[in-house]
Each structure stands twice: as C-alpha cells, then as structure tokens.
Protein 1
Amino acid sequence: MTPAPTRFPLLSAPLVSLRGVGKTFSNGTVALARLDLDVRPGELLSLLGPSGCGKSTALRILAGLGEATSGAVDWPGAAAGADHRGEIGFVFQEPTLMPWATVADNVWLPLRLKGVPRRAAMPRIEEALARVGLASFAASYPRELSGGMKMRVSIARALVTRPALLLMDEPFAALDEITRFNLNDDLVRLKNELGCTVVFVTHSVYESVYLSTRIVVMAARPGRVVAEIAVDEPPARDASFRRTAHYADLCRRASEELHGAMAPDAHL
Amino acid sequence: MTMSPSEAANPTAAPTPSRVIRLDRERLLGILLPVAVFLAAIAAWEALVRLNDIPPYVLPSPSRIGEALVRDWGVLSGSLLVTLKITVSALLAAIIGGVALAILFAQSRWIELSFFPFAVILQVTPIVAIAPLLLIYLEPNTAVLVCAFLVAFFPILSNTALGLASADHNLRNLFDLYGASRLKQLLYLRLPAALPFFLGGLRIGGGLALIGAIVAEIAAGTAGQGSGLAFRIVESGYRLNIPRMFAALVLISVAGILIFLIFTLLSHLLLRRWHESAAAREN
C-alpha cells in the first residue's frame, strides 16, 4: 500500500482513534460492538456499510456528539482533557442551514459562536464561499438555492474554521447523481488544497472508491468492522479515474466485501 | 469551480410580459370583487330599511349609523381610545409574559410540566365566567385589563413554546459541536426558529385581547367606571340609541381588523425573505 501524502509526513500516530468503542441505545439496540478505528492524518477515510451498521454513530462519537457506552476516543497528539470541538467540522446528510440567515451569515456561524465579529470574519467567510464556488451568493437566503448549492454552503460552513478533521455523514446521499459527481470532484480538490483529514460515511461503493485513500467496510447487528481496503491511487483524481480498470477492480472488491458484510442478513 | 446546469437555481426568472398583464388583472379583480360585494351588501341593507320603513330603534340604516358615527364622534372616539389602550397594554403584557414563560419552559421539561396545567386551566375557563370574580377583587379598569391579558396570553405562550422546541435537531447538534452556550443557542437558534410561530400567536392574541377587553367590559356593565366601546354599547342599549350602538360596534370591528392587518404586515415583513408561509411561490 502506498501511503497517501499528508500534511504531517513524519507523524505516524493516528490523529484520533476509537478504542473498543461500543454503543448501546436506551432501547437495547447494539449500534456498535467494540469498534477499533484509527484515523490517520491526511487520509480520506470512508466508512462504508449497510444501514444500521453504526457508521453514523461512530462518526458522531468521533465528533463528541454522542457518548460511547464503552471504550474511549483517543487524540494521541493532544494534551489530556483538551477540547477538540474547535478542530472538527461536521457536514450532515441534510444541508442543515438556518433558513432565516443569509448564506454569509450561515457560514459565519462557527466563527460567531467563537466570538468573532462579523466584520472580522468576513474575509474568511468570503474565502470559504469562494472555495465552494458560491462567492456571488453571499447575500442569498438558503431557500433561494438548489439542493447542491445548499450542500456547498454547508461544506463552506464546516471549512470556515479550517478544521484539522472534517466529518461527513452521507452528505451527498439525497442529491441527484450529476450534482453528486460534481461535489465528489470538489471534495477531492478541497481536501487536497486544505490538507485536512476527512472521515466520510457513505453507503455508496462507487463514491467511497472514488473519494477515499482508505475504505473501512462495516457490518450491522452488531456494528463492526469487517474489512479494510487501501485505495492505492494518487489522491488527486478526476473523472478519468472512473474509467480505469483499477477503479472497476476496487469497486468490485468493495462490493464483494459489502456483500459479505450483509450476508447474515440475507433473510431480511 | 464551475456550476453545473442542474445545480444552478433560478430565483429571479423574469416573467414574460403577457403574464405580467394577466397577473395585474387578476390582482385588480382580487381587490375590486370583494369591495364591490361589500358595497352591494351595504346598499341592500340601506334599501331594506328604507323600502320597509323600519324605524331606527329596530334596525338603523347604514347612513343613519354613519350619521351617528359623525355626530357622536366626540364620545365614541374617547371610548375607542380607552378600549385600544386596554387592548394594547394587555397585549404587551401578554407578549412579555408569554415569551418569558415560553423561554423558561424551553430551559427544562420539568418546569414546563409543572406550570403548563395552570396555563391550560386559564385558557379553557371562559373569560366571561372569570370576569365577575375579578371585578370583586380588582378595580374595574384593572379587571378588564387582566381579562384581556388572560385571553391573549395563552396563544402567545403556546405558540412560542412550540417554536422554541422546533429548532432543527441537527442545527442543535452543530451548536453543541461548536460549544455554544445556552444563551447563544437561545439567541442565534431557538428564538429565530420560534419567530414564525410567535407571529402566528401574536395574530391570534391580538384579536383575542380586543375580544377579552370587550367581554370584560360588558361583564362589568354599568357598574364599571370605564367608558370603553363595550360600555357605550351597553349604555346606548339602555337609552334605545340603536344607531350609536351600531356605530360603536363598527368601531370595534375596525379596531379588530386594524390589529389583524398590522400583525399580518409585520409577519410578512419579517418572514418574506426566508419563511415558506410568507415567501412568494415560484411556479
């Protein structure tokens, strides 16, 4: 496996890891059973699996949005007890914008919550919007935008704090395929420009192969890791990658692993 | 980055000229038609009274009512002012009380559970039945004010409470992720999310405050020292001055319509850029 070029080439320690993380919901459902997962600096890691495999739960625990029932979240490079919330950007499946605020004010939110006044935040807001191609829509309201554009605003909002770790929970699942392909290309470009680490939850084999440097395949009931696929392809990719035999081969492997992960549920 | 055609939204598509003309004609008709029907109804009333020689102490004609409105304007305008003052102060108190209590409810489910029964009891008990009691304990003017407050309070409280609770869950997660304090969450997320609900409650509460003031004044009857519009109606009834009774009624209706229009306009101005209820549909 060729390691992906990273912002921290000398650092071999993971950026963050889940150690034996389990999560049982109050209704008794075991969402995760002893999950071990390392997120390495600079990688784009896909969590691929069927619904109910706990991939979103794992992402939320990484973000600190949900408490693990057992196990721990480790940030090896950080001081004990440090607050990591400032270093994380999160993109939900829905754009999750505030409808009463303009695009610029929506992107301002993470900085505003840190106490940055609007005027001081403006250059960073404009930069984030320019990165997602929405520089001229700063004064628009979310309802005036298409689904893909709303998702771009959501991504700009997550990037405006320049997070070390970007967590994305099936962000493009509700979009049409053409929009989705465009956003996939944009995500690859943004990640390479910014050099951040991305954990990307998806149930699409093709999306995970196209985007990732590494794919972790998960299975449901209980949620666990069943396979890991290294995508040994340079991180700068474009649509031509989709036409290569290597891409087809990786998709086939990922599909097989996913199929294997779902086998016990064949009766469903 | 380039925008694909499928993504480009088209918020300001210019309508074709023929469509503009048709829309204008439709709008004009939408104003003219109700006005014409209303005027026709007034004319029919006038004709009914004149053709059948109905005496004004049974049913005054619209022209007689208009006459009374002009002749008694001194007395009536004073009463209108009293009623409006009570309505507006009651509504202000209801807004402050309702929003404050809704914010308190939003802080903890236990507070909400403990206090909500009181709010419901006050809401379901008819104000006409409470008014005589309040008149025993309070001065008539204060009692009328409290009655108007009580009816306007509940819709504002319950709507605002619903609005505060309806902020998007993932947005709340996002605020948690960025470590937002409760105060910031309230200011930047929950209050804006509650605004459309609050404005809906305000429109209902505004009308109800007027009704509450009128009902309480009627209950106070001649014992009241107030001289609001309801008092004028009761008084004119005793004196068989039916045209003035109708004139006072007209003023109450006009006041109610004005309150409704003001809040509808306010709602439109505050929500038109972002809320589905106020924004124009594009199709």
Note: Residues 233 and 246 of chain A are 9 Å apart (CA to CA).
Protein 2
Amino acid sequence: MIMMDGVVKRYNDLIALDHFSFTARDGEIVGLLGPNGCGKTTAINCMLSLLTFDSGEIEIFGEKVDSNNNTVKRRIGIVPQELAIFDKLNVYENIDFYCGLYVSDNKERKKLVEEAIDFVDLEKYRKFTPGKLSGGLKRRLNIACGIAHKPELLFMDEPTVAVDAQSRHFILEGIKKMKAKGTTVIYTTHYLEEAEQLCDRMVIMDQGRSIAQGTVSQLQKSISTQERVEVGFLTEDQDMKKRLEELPHVVKVSSKNGNYLIHFETQENNLPNLIKFIESNDLTYTELTSERSTLSDIFLELTGKELRD
Amino acid sequence: MTVFKGILLHFWKYKILILILLAAFFGFAIMFSQGNSSDNYNSESLRLKVIDHSQSDISRGLIEYLNVNNEAEIINEEKTDIEALEEEIFLSAIDGFIIIPPDAQPRFMDGDPVVETTSDRRTSKHLQLQTAIQQYFMFLKADFDTTGTLHPNETIELLSESIDVKIHESVDVEAQSNFDYMKNYTNFAGYWIMLFLLIIVGNVMSEFNSPELKQRINVSPMKTGTFMYQMIISQIVVGLVVVAFMFFGAVALRSGELSGVPLGKMLAALILITAFTLSIHYVIGALTTNKFIINGLANFIAIGMAFLSGVMMPLEVMGETAQNIAQYLPLYHFTQIYAEADITWSESAFPMLVVALYTIAFLIIGMIVENKRKISS
C-alpha cells in the first residue's frame, strides 16, 4: 500500500529525512516512533505530497505520489497533530465540511457524517462549537473530520497528545475498530505503551533515518538485552557480581539501589537458573523481580537516548 | 461547492455582528438624512412693546417701521416695570420689548448701538426682531451718510419694496440637496464597506488560511484552483450583498428624493471599492492569519484612507500636503466617480479606471506575497 524508498528531504543544511525507507501493507497499523524532530511529520508530509522531497521514491496504492493525483487523495485521510477544525462551525458542520471535500453527493455525505459522529460518540454534542468541547472531545472531532469519508489509508499524527485517559482509551479502541474494517493506519506517537498495544509493526526513527523496523518481538530480538532481573540479597558478598556474570546468557550485571540488575540475552530459563544458583549457594534473597525488555529499552539501546528526549 | 458554502456559513455565524454594523450604519444614515432636510422659516407678526425715552424722528420712524409687519405698542415710560415685561415674555404674552434711550439720535450719529431689546433668545422671533431693527438703522445710516439728513419715512418706504428673484434654470436646488445627501451617504458607505469587509472577511478567511486547516484542505482531492475559485466567488457574493444593502438601503431611505443623483455612478463606485477592498484583504491574508493583526490593519487602512481621501471631512479644509497625498489614494478616486451631480460616464471613467488599477495592483502584490510564503514553507 505504501512504499517509501531512500527518501531524502533537506531544509538547507538540515537533513530532515536521510534515505528513509519504509513500507506498509493493507490493513496494517504501522507506528512511526521517534523523539521530537526525528522526521516523523516530515515523512508523513512527503507521503501526503504536502512537501516535495529531494530524492527517493514514494508510492501509495501502487502510484507515485503527486499533489494532483486526486484518485489517490480521495482514498487517504489525515488526522493532524494540531487541531484542524473550524471554531465557528459546530460538530456536525465541521465534519460535513471536511467530508464535503471528498464526497459531493449530499445524501451520501449526510449518511457518512452521521456515521462519523456515531463512531466518535459525539451525538450529544453535534450542535456544540469546538469552544464548548473539552480537549478530549475536540480530539475526537478532529478524528471524525479525518475519517468521515471512510479512507482506506489513514495518517494519524499523535492523535492522543494532551488527552485524558478515558478519551485516549476511546480513541485507541476506535483505531482498532477501523483496522478491523480494513483501514491501513500510519500512526505516529511518543507513547510507547500505545504503540505496543496498537501497532502491528513499528518503524523507529532517529535523525531522519529508520534505525529499526518490525514487530515488537522482532525489535526485541534485535537488541542484546531480552530480560532484566533485579535481585537483592540479605548478606553482602564481595564476589557476588562476578559470580552472577558467570550465569548462562548474562550480558552484564549492574548495581541498582543496593540490588543487582542482571541483563540476559535470551528470555528462556533465566529465573530457574537464578533460583538454582541461590539455592545451591545457600543465599537468602530480599527482592526478586523480572522484566522483559520494553520498547523503551529497544529505543534506548538503538538510539542511546530516551524516546521523550 | 463545499468551500463556497462553508465560507457563506461562516459569514452567517457572524450575523449578529453584521446586523449591529448594518444597524449602526443605517442609524447614522437616517440621522444625517433628518439633519439634512431643509428648514423652512416664515416670519411672523411680532407682539412688541416699546418704551420711547427719545421721542425723536428716528425713534418714531423705528416704531412706524416695526408696525408695518408687527404690533408695536408704545407704553408709558413712567409706568414701566421691566420685570413685569420680562414675565410677559416668559409667559409668551409678548415677543419682546424695546427701550429707546433719550440719547438715541446722538448714538445713531456716532454709530453706537441705539436701542436695547429684550426677547426670548431661544426662539426665531428674537432673530426676526434683531434683523428688523438692524435693517432699519442700516438703511437709515446709509441714507444719512449719503445725504447728511435723516429721512425715516423714505427709509421705511425703501424697506417695504421687494424684488423678484429668478433662479437660473440649470441650478435645481432640490436636486442639488438630494445629490449632496447621497454624495455624503456614498462616501460613508464606501468607508463602511471597507471596514466591514476587512474585518468580517478578514476574520472568516483567517480561519480558512490557518496552516492546520489549509493542510487538511490541501490533502483532500479538491484542486487549489477550485478552492481559490470558490473562495473568490463567495467573497464576491458577500461583497455584492453588502453593496446591495448599502445601495438599495439608500434608495429606500430617500425614495422620492433621488432626482439629480447619479445613482449609476454611485453603484459602480460602491462595486469598485468592494473589489478594491477584497484585493487589500487578499494581501493582508497572504501576510498574516493573526486576527488581531487583521483587525488592527483593517482599522488603520480604512480610517486612515477615509480620513486622507476626503470621505470623513472635506479635503478643502485640509492642508495642501494632505490634498496632494489624497490624489494618490484609491478612496479619493472613489469619491471622484460621483463628484458632481451632472457628471458624465466619460468623466467618471478615469477615476473608475484608477480604482480598478489599484485593485489589480493589490491582487498582483497578494499573489507575489502568497507565492513567496509557499516557497519559504
């Protein structure tokens, strides 16, 4: 459905996209992850032909992107990061306006607008202007304006920024419903837990480049630490760190709050091995926790910085 | 026609503000209309009392003259009670009283005020009395200066004579009055249209031009040309509706008082100033989407231009520099389209062309600014 190959976009000396490549298949939710300024929005704007690019290729629905290709544009929807709604128009009028840019038939448009209002559950607020809506409801309206014409491909640029937990849950469930209906979603976010919960595949971006792509499990496999175990002992032993490093699959052992943090390169049998070690050495542990590597770890290891940096 | 309808819907959302502005405009127009109506003045027979301390030829002549058109009663000087006479004026029993001092004749010779009059200064009768006394002494003095002797009776005869004044056929006083009113009305309407369009259209279009909304529109299958076309058409429709309100509002307000008014030229002028204002708005819209800046610029441009173009006050009362500057402003040429009641279309053609050229110039500037903005983004 989308193919981006070696795209370069420069703003004078600044390289916003550096040979960026990525693909998205029909019905997938693909997450574009990366810190602020990593090129996510530039990549989306290039795909939407809002920006020209210096080199590379972009194809959507098998056709090269072109700002004059209305057949392709008709099948695309966008939910921008900033609220793009008219302050003076009410909920119904806002959705109707944007839907009208795609659908000229009045009867059909009316039906689509009603469906969109229903989808984002704004029925009670249909006569409200945005000024009277809460932040979460405004976000829902912003989404409704982007999906009313039932796009096959939807770009969602951080749709849950500054949204309360209830509205965020509502929005994420809505996206899942759209996927179930066959919509392909390109989703950018800061929130790793959202991406983990929602995305089939992820593209991790840094400094305009794609540094890793794949499912969460594929990405996890691409880094050295698969599992972290934190353990604390009742008695101190000078050689403990060295002895723990000798355990199978241990990558490294570090100290954390008086405890030991053990990094394992696999996720298999780490805890049984550690418990066996404790029993055989007649040790008493005060704390024992295990955590599989998260997207945050993946990001940290791949880029050397936190996602929210 | 989604954008067309969307823009018109936005204007509809400003209906209260539009109604207030229209009401304010027509409120002023009606007020000026009433103020402009001609006042009729008819002289009345005054009820006067005269205390003659002088008993001279000129005092007797004055009383005789006043009695020609009024009732001047001579009262006994010994029974004179000034306060009682003042009360009579207050109660409208008499219109005034005149005290002729003993030295009236020497005063007259010396050119000093001769008599004292008391009347209600708030009424036109006061003016009538003053005028009558002034006329009598002015003519008497002129005669005295010429002949060296006093001839009160001849002066009274002279003042009783009348002449016929025939107004030249080409000067139609009523038509000129109609034209003067409509000229001021159109001046004000031009200023109001500028202010209205710059503020209302500016505010509406600032939303449509905001980057977030524009991005969504650009992503849609609507072509830029179609968007521009619908945007321009909607603004023209709004502009024409405003012109229609102004023009037909005046026609309704002055129905029966439109003879001698070059209505066609005034309508053309209003249409041209609307087009010019939309072109200015286009430039402002290309420069900024900030509503505060738009409103500020709208007021600055409309008031500044109206002031310097003779719309708010006649250019004649301004200095030479201001008059020279005015000739370079489109609003000045707007007023020249209907500058005279009998102006011909060929005479109006030049100022019309100037306003049209200003419109085209601003459209070109707007296009350049917008293209530069697109390139830089």
Note: Chain B has two domains: 2-34+174-376, 47-160.
